[in-house]
Amino acid sequence: MLAGANAKSRVESVADAVRKRICLAEPGQDLVLHEGALAGEFHMSRTPIRQVLQRLAYERLVETRSGIGTIAVALDESHRDRYLRAHHGILRAVIASQETVLDMRQKSQILALAGLLDQQPARDAEFHFEIRGQLIAILADAIEDPILRDAHLASHWRVVRCDLRDYMRDPDSAGRRLKALIDAVARSVGGGLLFQTLLEHDLQA
Fold this sequence. Notes:
The structure is a single chain. It is built from 9 helices and 3 strands. It has helices spanning 2-23, 35-42, 46-58, 80-97, 104-119, 125-142, 146-169, 171-188, 194-204, and strands spanning 32-33, 62-65, 69-72. Strands 1-3-2 form a 3-stranded antiparallel sheet. Residues 1-7 have low confidence and may be disordered.
C-alpha cells in the first residue's frame, strides 16, 4: 500500500511539473510532450508518464493530434470572456448540486494559503502558479460529483492560464487580485459558502 501511495505521489509530482510548464509557457510557444523524452527527464517508465498525460488531458491542458503526438492546448486569450462564463456556469452547478462543508484539513489548507500571502506577496509567476494550484486542488477535493470535479479542473486551469498572462504583464496588479481572492475564500471557510464566494468574487473583479 505504501509503494502504491509513493507511486501516486510521484505521478502527481510530475503532473504538477508538466502543468507548470504549460501554464507558464510564453504566448505562442508550441509545447510537444513526447512520452519518451518525459520518461527520461523524470526517470520514469512510460506507463506513469501516460497517467500524467491522461490527467492533464482531463484538465484540457493537453490533447493528442494525429501525426504529432501530445501537445499543450493553445490558449486563445481573445476567448477569455467565454472561458469565464463557462467557469461561472460550472461554479453555479456545484453550488446547486451540493452543500459544501469543508473538513478541518481543507479549512486549515485554505487558511495556510492566506497566511502565506500575508507573509510574502505573489512575487513571481511560479509562486502565483503554486498558490493557485494549491487552491484548485483544495476546491476539487471539496466537489462531490466527479463529472463536475473534472469540469471544474478544466475550466479553472484555463482561467488561471489567462491570469498568469496578466501576471506577466502586470505582476503587482495580478498579485493584489490573487491576495483578494485568497482572503475572500479564507473568510468563507466557516460558513459553507466557498463556491458562492468564488463566484461572487469573480463577478465583482
